[in-house]
Amino acid sequence: MPTPTSSPSPTSPQRTRLRHAARLAAAFAITLTVTACARLATVDSNALWKIVDIRCVPSQQATGTPGQCTRVDLEKRYVILKDIVGRSQYLLIPTDRITGIESPLILAPHAQDYWVDAWGSRHDVEQSVKRTLPDNLLGLEINSPYRRSQNQLHIHIDCMRRDVSLALGRHAKDAPGQWHWDTIDGRRYRIMRVTSLSQAGNPFRIVARDNQDAEAMATQTILVTGAGPSADTDGWLILNSGIDVDDGSGSAEGLMDHACRVADAP
């Protein structure tokens, strides 16, 4: 039986070419992965749910690490995921199958206060931009199903546009619990200052008071931001609009700044 012969060792120029080829292949693989993720989000309305249910939660349960997510809270039943869009945008996503703002599950008696959890996760935004920001320059937002690509509830967590924050300053001292209509960035919103985001102050419950079925809730968008630099003392502003409102909107995401330019200001 012939004795196998070893392949000759590559010369130094060959090794250089091989290393270069390997780097190119790795870079190409990374590009394909990122592109595939972006494409997945646009063509698969269940992409976020699959990330949570197949990658993040099982990883946390098996290894104690969050997998593709930034954080997994099994007790409170949500994950925090860095969005592929933007410098500092994060998403809070329930670990339960909840389609979105229109789901009756968000109004169940013992439903999780996702807005409280999302607000507590604003520090992930600050870590991304390596700067502490006043609460009125940070925001949370959820879109109507008519203005979203994903059918798993997700709350956007990111920076606010500075011009929007300045415009909202006129509501910083509004009496809590009362709606005031205003035009912000060319769209009509009703705005309420609250002193808590939990229980009766839960934005889902507040908006649902006069949108009492899934069909009505499905037309709504909600944005939450600090009423002033410290929400603990100044409270929060809830912005609400709907696609059935004259000059209204099913999305308030445009009031946020996924480039977080406020973090670069002196």
TrEMBL record:
EC assignment: 3.6.1.26
Coiled-coil intervals, chain numbering: none
Gene Ontology annotations for the cellular component aspect, listed alphabetically: plasma membrane
Signal peptide per UniProt: 1-38
GO biological process terms, semicolon-separated: CDP-diacylglycerol catabolic process; phospholipid biosynthetic process
InterPro entries: CDP-diacylglyc_Pase, HIT-like_sf
Membrane topology, as annotated: Single-pass membrane protein
Family to which this protein belongs: Belongs to the Cdh family.
Protein name (database record): CDP-diacylglycerol pyrophosphatase
Organism of origin: Paraburkholderia fynbosensis
